[in-house]
Amino acid sequence: MRKVVITGLGAVTPLGTGVKKTWEAILNSTSGVDLIQAIPTDSLDIKIAGEVNDFITDEWVPKKEQKKTSRFIHLALASTKQAIESAGLDFEKEEHLKERTGVLIGAGLGSLRIIEQNATRLNQQKRLSPFFIPAVIANSASGQVSIHWGLRGPNFSTVSACASGAHAIGESSRWIREGICDVVISGGSESVISPLAFQGFHAMRALSTRNENPQKASRPWDKERDGFILSEGAATLILEEEERAKKRNAPIYAKLIGYGASSDAYHIAAPEPEGKGATLAMKTALQSAGISKEEVDYINAHGTSTPAGDIAESKAIKSVFKEHSSKLKVSSTKSMTGHTLGAAGAIESLFSILSLCDQVAPPTINLDNPDNEYNFNFVPHHAQEGKINIALNNSFGFGGTNACLLFKKYP
Amino acid sequence: MNIEEKVTSLIVDQLGVEKDKVKPESSFVDDLGADSMDIVELVMAFEDNFSIQIPDQEEGNIRTVQDAIDFIKENQKANS
Q1: Angle between helices A112-123 and A195-203 (to 10 degrees)
Q2: Which of A252, A335, A403, A406: disulfide with A163, CB 3.0–4.6 Å?
């Protein structure tokens, strides 16, 4: 049986460009949410977001390529470059490996901003850019990564709203298990900082309107929570077949041991109130890993800070873990990053892996008055050190879709 | 900036080539590494910057830097 290990990590988040910078900010309980910088907000109801402010595009993407692509692709190229370097992979020296390497980077939406710009041109009866379509389609991040490094294995994108990144990692682990690939570049990327996105999500009443206090706006499980924070970011993981990774003395950050996916089959945006879909996905992940629920130590929850979502997830966790749930650490790093949509499952998988590496559970900030009848340890305000052998990452998306991943400490 | 200089700077910008590579006789495809999509984007930049319209059927006739300069001069005259 071929097993999957994680040998490379890369990230670009509202907490900074790079894994180290992001993780240090997380462990210091830093909020990456602030007033929106990239676009004017005078006519918007929402004026806060989690933007990546330290990202210098020229450092990661050649000038000529920048115009043909869009920001979610730039962020994916940057996080992938970091991940490939951290894995110590050099595809130019291993030509045969290119055929055995797949790319599966999830994105929830693609570039809404460029859609908006081209729609405006269309209304002015101006010509549209030939790069409009390739810059906005959701599989362009995967496509550009495969072109950039010459990777010729399978290449597409998962599109499942806020679960896209988790689905990408889960599905690509099967490519390795089934022998289709030896290495997969997997993760998620999203950047939809645009009026269309803010007003669109606001029309659903999905976003926090705490414009006057950005750093306090994302507050999963807190009684005063009022919606999620739209953020941008990307994370890339290098998935590799374990024996191959050991043979080349690769750095191994964690093992990917389980994956479960399910549907609520209930509503296009609202979670099933009892969390039945989430329950099924978590149970399926535990079964696929062949572990008992008592072996899980930490859950990086979906926890978006919406009134309904946080409760449904708590109910699901309780129904899966029963009396063991009081021993679990359950935190939402979205309290710091905001919600990066299609990148969230990948960024939070990264945090789950780092929690195993460093034996520390990241905090849930802003949790002043927990709306909590479930007595989990939500790791309020500050990170907590302690044994973490297995971590679970939950990701749920509009459309009623759920994906859960289980990571184990290595060795 | 005259038309020649402006055209050169747009080409440098759009195609990401060195300025001294852009000569009147340079072919966009053979010398400057453009593909058909790059050329459409370049035509858009000419249209936006010189306030002209370049019909789709004319695109194929603009193969070199000089072709572009000639077309722009011709059409700016026509407009004025």
Answers
A1: 110
A2: A403
Distance in angstroms (rounded) separating the CA atoms of residues A138 and A156? 9
pLDDT tens digits for range A94-117:
999 999 999 999 999 999 999 999
Q: Residue A97 has which token pair?
A: 């490996």
**Alpha-carbon span A267 to A189, nearest angstrom:** 25
pLDDT tens for B31-58 read 999 998 999 999 999 999 999 989 888 8
Confirm whether A267 is a catalytic residue: no
Candidates B16, B44, B47; nearest CB to A63? B16
Please say if A181 is a catalytic residue: no
Q: So where are chain B's domains? A: 3-75
Segment A242-260, tens digit of pLDDT: 999 999 999 999 999 999 9
Q: Answer yes or no: is pLDDT of B59 > 90.
A: no
Indicate which residue of B13, B30, B35, B48 is catalytic.
B35
Neighbours of B63 (CB within 10 A): 15
Task: Establish if B15 touches chain A: CB-CB under 8 angstroms.
Answer: yes
User: Which CATH class, in words, describes the domain spanning B3-75?
Assistant: mainly alpha
* pTM score of the predicted model: 0.95
Cβ pair A64:B16 closer than 8 A: yes
Asked if A58 reaches chain B (Cβ–Cβ under 8 Å), the answer is: no
HSE at residue A16, side-chain half, CA atoms within 13 A, is 11
ipTM for the predicted complex comes to 0.83
